[in-house]
């Protein structure tokens, strides 16, 4: 038995071994290696002697393996623009910080191939766990994460019975609630502006919410005009113009999120249409923008901060190996503001 | 000489050694280790045989050390909220992706201690280089990064002759240009809403820009009312109310950024003040919000996308060891929109 093995069952000495040998905490050993200037000289010397004696290799990988945890959580959000995810992620980060974890964020530009690449990069960089947005992705990715023992939590979308834990809201039900309100006001000519549905389960569920209410009320869902376009103010404007230039323009344009809705509002102004007198416009998310624009935007309020905070707690519990929590369904609610009114005439 | 050393001068076998031994590219070796399912079985077997034979240890740290680069760039921005940095960082990420690098972002909530922690976390996670915002930080941090050979680029603030390379604009000159315009219109009672200046060089330079123009025009800079508050729509509103409830309220409120300005506009509406007839309001940044609010916001346009794109190119050049580029000064320009008019009366 060589010297190292006296301190550990493993042949590679760990941070804990160094700490025990130098009679300090593992935090002190970490500090000596990462920020030696923060440790008094006497302690530093003792720790470095232990490092040498045990042959502990303070390279990044060895450190991560030794401590097992890196106290780093990764999150991949579809975009950093337009503040769609900003408030939730900021709350997520604040709570992680409170719990002693650092957050690293990547943005996939709504591209599955980029998300895949970023998941692998975050795992290679030692992320203890990942937060991902929405359920739609190659099952192979979940296998990849499971093989490596990296817990994952899906946010921004609750799915009952999904194999992967999730925290979020029911996009379909939330949008259906708004659609009920719209149709209660008498609207029968509906237009929808949505992000592409094929790869985005949140977008798809929101459209379904509208369609199901329309069908229930005797409208032909096929007769509802729908434009798909990536989320941006500019795209929202173009899509709105497209809908309004139809032979029978809609009396209400239901937008998949607030960013599209704000673009639609801007275009309405440019086209000389009054909102809501000439046409109603609704959003989804209730980002800060929604209350700031004039007229203020009727939308679905998503509890972003609450979601971010709870997501942090769940993920940290996962990292610490606590029993897995149930998926969490959060409630959304309608914010009836100025852009929704009865149809014209 | 043992078998390993036949393949390398170093005693630890590298990714390159494995690639040479298996007669494949290093990318193929990486792929075998990270995503074995993406490599045909024959190649995979050959690579794994080489891994075993050479005793190559495909753990994360060893991998990072072997390849020397991780193709990961870290960025620490002060906040993810309000889309202040969103557009620039999105462009930064898109360009990095084009160049084959992955971006990991952290947000420091404008707190130097958190930034410090995140810098260390990103370095520990193997970031090849870092993008930091603004110049104000403990010089010790630059030493820490230099010791570890991690290149750093400061963005959002150009500083001539600074020891650290930077890309950005001259915050002072940009704000001075706006102040000239404001005073040309006849304003003599100025109010300023700024982020805390003590730890934020961008905020400080913007205030200086206003003060210097005011002094040049014969105003007593001490007589200019100034409120410091963290960037948020809500805080902008409170600060605006504070300024307008003074005995001699300003005829123009110059805000340190668009987020504060939008808050000021909202509060003006609540207080029954017309903008710009009763009071003018200006911003800084020209985030998407600025053109969307009504009335549209007069502000300083910052070339966020251009800055992000160029920052990516400079940092990647640094990582690749190309000769260091000069710091880059970008031009800003005024966007004279609806919220700035002549003073009342």
TrEMBL record, chains A, B:
Give the protein's recorded name: HTH-type transcriptional repressor CytR
Name the PANTHER family for this protein: LACI-RELATED TRANSCRIPTIONAL REPRESSOR (PTHR30146), TRANSCRIPTIONAL REGULATORY PROTEIN (PTHR30146:SF138)
Note the PROSITE patterns from the entry: HTH_LACI_2
Q: Where is the HTH lacI-type domain?
A: 13-67
**Which Gene3D superfamilies does the record associate with it?**
3.40.50.2300, lambda repressor-like DNA-binding domains
Q: Please give the CDD domains that the UniProt record associates with this protein.
A: HTH_LacI, PBP1_LacI-like
Domain of life (superkingdom): Bacteria
- One Pfam assignment: Peripla_BP_3
Q: Does the entry feature the keyword Iron-sulfur, yes or no? A: no
InterPro entries with a match to the protein in the record: HTH_LacI, LacI/GalR-like_sensor, Lambda_DNA-bd_dom_sf, Peripla_BP_I
- Coding gene? cytR
């Amino acid at each position: 038995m060589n010297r190292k093995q006296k301190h550990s069952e493993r042949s590679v000495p760990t941070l804990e071994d160094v700490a025990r040998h130098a009679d300090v905490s593992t935090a002190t050993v970490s500090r000596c290696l990462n920020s030696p200037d923060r440790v008094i000289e006497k302690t530093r010397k003792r720790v470095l002697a232990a490092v040498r004696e045990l042959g502990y290799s303070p390279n990044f990988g060895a450190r991560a393996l030794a401590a097992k945890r890196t106290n780093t959580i990764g999150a991949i959000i579809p975009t950093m623009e337009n503040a769609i995810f900003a408030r939730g992620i900021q709350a997520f980060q604040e709570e992680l910080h409170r719990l002693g974890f650092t957050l690293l964020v990547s943005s996939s530009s709504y591209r599955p191939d980029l998300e895949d690449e970023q998941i692998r990069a975050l795992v290679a960089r030692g992320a203890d766990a990942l937060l991902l947005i929405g359920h739609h992705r190659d099952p192979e990715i979940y296998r990849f994460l499971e093989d490596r023992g990296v817990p994952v939590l899906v946010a921004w979308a609750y799915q009952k019975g999904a194999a992967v834990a999730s925290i979020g809201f029911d996009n379909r039900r939330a949008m259906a609630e708004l659609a009920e309100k719209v149709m209660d006001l008498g609207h029968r000519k509906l237009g929808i502006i949505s992000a592409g549905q094929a790869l985005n389960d949140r977008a798809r569920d929101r459209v379904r919410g509208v369609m199901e209410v329309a069908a229930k009320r005797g409208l032909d869902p096929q007769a509802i005009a729908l434009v798909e376009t990536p989320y941006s103010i500019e795209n929202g404007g173009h899509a709105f113009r497209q809908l309004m230039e139809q032979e029978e323009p809609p009396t209400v344009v239901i937008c998949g999120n607030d960013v599209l809705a704000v673009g639609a509002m801007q275009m309405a102004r440019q086209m000389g249409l009054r909102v809501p007198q000439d046409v109603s416009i609704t959003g989804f998310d209730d980002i800060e923008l929604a209350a700031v624009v004039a007229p203020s935007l009727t939308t679905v309020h998503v509890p972003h901060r609450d979601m971010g905070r709870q997501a942090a707690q769940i993920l940290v519990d996962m990292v610490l190996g606590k029993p897995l929590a149930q998926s969490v369904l959060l409630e959304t609610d309608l914010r009836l503001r100025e852009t929704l009114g009865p149809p014209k005439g």
